[in-house]
Amino acid sequence: MLEIENLRGAHFGPLTLTLNALECVFVQGVSGAGKTLFLRAVADMDCVSGDVRIAGQCRRDLPPPEWRRRVGLLPAESQWWADTVGMHFGKYGAATIAPLGFGPETLAWQVARLSSGERQRLALARLLSNRPRVLLLDEPTANLDEVNRGRVEAVVVDYLEVNHACALWVSHDVAQATRIAARVIRMADGRLQAPAVMESDR
């Protein structure tokens, strides 16, 4: 599904990695290891060298907007460009946000009144409504309580299964990785290290 070959930026690389459909791979490492830069490079947000392919389709053969529809990046700090939540969603907005714990009245809320956790969950719903083939998730549950963290995990796992998608998920949460990751890889000094040992593998 996702093939990354010799991906290199100013502060990381070269990185080579392959993800299969339905696979959720966690990326862990200390702050400054290059995790966010890695996700941005896969999403074609920064100038980098190397190849990235989705189902054999190379990044450089597609216009950037089309590539970013297929590869959805959820940054740690989401961007909002309209006054109300509903203006960021299509006609199926209520159905999109419901699994993340929001009622239809949420669409009328002012973005300015949203908490950081509400912004995170709604940004995820907005991303998934575009139906990307690859999810790039940068600490999507960092500001969430246990209930909402569980909702996000369930929504992502279900999305991968229904859409035969795959995900790169940056997180420091070891327990979360044990619950849902197919693999855990570590980054250090801009390089991928040997896979971490999952609790279930011990």
How are the secondary structure elements laid out?
Elements: E1 2-9, E2 12-19, E3 24-28, H1 35-42, E4 49-54, E5 57-58, H2 64-70, E6 71-74, H3 93-97, H4 116-128, E7 134-138, H5 146-163, E8 166-170, H6 174-180, E9 183-188, E10 191-192
Labels describing this entry:
disordered C terminus, Rossmann fold, 202 residues, four-stranded antiparallel beta sheet, globular, single chain, 6 helices, alpha/beta
> Largest beta sheet, briefly?
6 strands, mixed
Q: How many domain modules?
A: 1
Return the CATH class. Answer: Alpha Beta
Order of helices and strands: EEEHEEHEHHEHEHEE
The CATH architecture category equals: 3-Layer(aba) Sandwich
Based on secondary structure, the structural category is: alpha/beta
Roughly what percent helix?
25-40%
